[in-house]
Design goal:
With 321 residues, the chain is of the alpha/beta class. Helix 2 crosses helix 8 and helix 8 runs antiparallel to helix 9. It holds the Pfam family PfkB. This is D-glycero-beta-D-manno-heptose-7-phosphate kinase.
């Protein structure tokens, strides 16, 4: 596998807690409840050749955009979350978990919407099954969210769009335009192959599969650079941060190409690592750091979070240990 050839990102610098505490990030996007059922498997079902799980413990965690906001708070920034949830038990659970995480919640409630749940069944730390419950928010609720966005914009430094293709970012193009007009940096964690809707974003943070879906398969690092440069130019995106799993991450901007080698101590679970990356970059931009320094810290945070089970966070002491 070809190793990216480029400048490296700067070394990690310690950011004072009081500096990070002034960073104000508004996360907008799709939220979900990550529900985990843990149990033992001691037999196969007589009804079908499937394992029978004796569930002994349940754990709920914030997922999607809510996990992004939780990550920003965990490293010391302030985070608000604008999203849509239903009037149901999972929705109330999300409200409670946001409160425990010190995320400022700006929730639009849709009584007809089942709150998105990703239910994972695990035995001996191995995932056996995932069951998804989801639907799309009503148009009226999304318009109310757009109006709330206008009101929240002046009191935040950085806007972060967390797209999980659940319908919460139907008006993302207008939000990006409004935020950039107000002089705010806008970060986007993309989904799907229609990136025209992200036109004008400051930074977009795809993984390899997400980028390949938009620009096709690249044959070399030079080919990748050419394709990304064209994409950025066509969509007026200032920078693209490509997360490359075991290869680390690469930042493409007008200042050139910078690569950060993977910093993982132990890879246990990569789910949610992208949330940690974009949340860290946003928090650091809000604290006044240059983008390249924010990427270096995000790479360090990703290396820590993949050593944890499920959607997890990295706190300030872990990041700057």
């Amino acid at each position: 596998m070809q190793t990216p050839q480029s400048d490296t990102v700067p070394s990690v610098k310690i950011v004072p807690r009081e500096t990070l505490a002034k960073s104000r990030v508004l996360v907008v996007g799709d939220v979900m409840l990550d529900r985990y059922w843990f149990g033992d498997v001691n037999r196969i079902s007589p009804e079908a050749p499937v394992p029978v799980v004796h569930v002994q413990r349940q754990e709920d965690r914030l997922g999607g955009a809510a996990n992004v906001a939780r990550n920003a708070v965990a490293i010391g920034a302030q985070a608000g979350l604008l999203c849509v949830v239903g009037h149901d038990e999972p929705g109330e659970r999300i409200v409670g978990l946001l409160g425990e995480s010190n995320v400022q919640a700006y929730l639009e409630r849709d009584p007809a919407l089942p709150t998105t749940i990703k239910l994972r069944v695990l035995s001996r730390q191995q995932q056996l099954l995932r069951v998804d419950f989801e639907n799309t928010p009503a148009h009226e609720v999304l318009l109310a969210g757009l109006a709330r966005f206008d009101a929240l914009l002046p009191s935040h430094d950085v806007i972060l769009m967390s797209d999980y293709a659940k319908g919460g970012l139907t008006h993302v193009t207008q939000m990006i335009s409004k935020a950039r007009a107000a002089g705010k940096a806008v970060l986007v964690d993309p989904k799907g192959d229609d990136w025209e809707r992200y036109r004008g974003a400051s930074v977009i943070t795809p993984n390899r599969a997400e980028l390949r879906e938009v620009i096709g398969t690249w044959k070399s690092e030079e080919d990748l650079l050419a394709r990304v440069t064209k994409l950025r130019r066509d969509l007026q995106i200032d920078a693209l941060l490509l997360t490359r799993s075991e290869e680390g991450m690469t930042l493409f901007s007008d200042e050139g190409v910078r690569h950060a080698a993977a910093d993982a101590r132990e890879v246990y679970d990569v789910s949610g690592a992208g949330d940690t990356v974009i949340a860290t970059v946003a928090a650091m931009l809000g604290a006044g750091l240059p983008l390249a320094e924010g990427v270096a810290l995000a790479n360090r945070a990703a290396g820590i979070v993949v050593g944890k089970l499920g959607t997890a966070t990295v706190d300030y002491d872990e990041l700057f240990a």
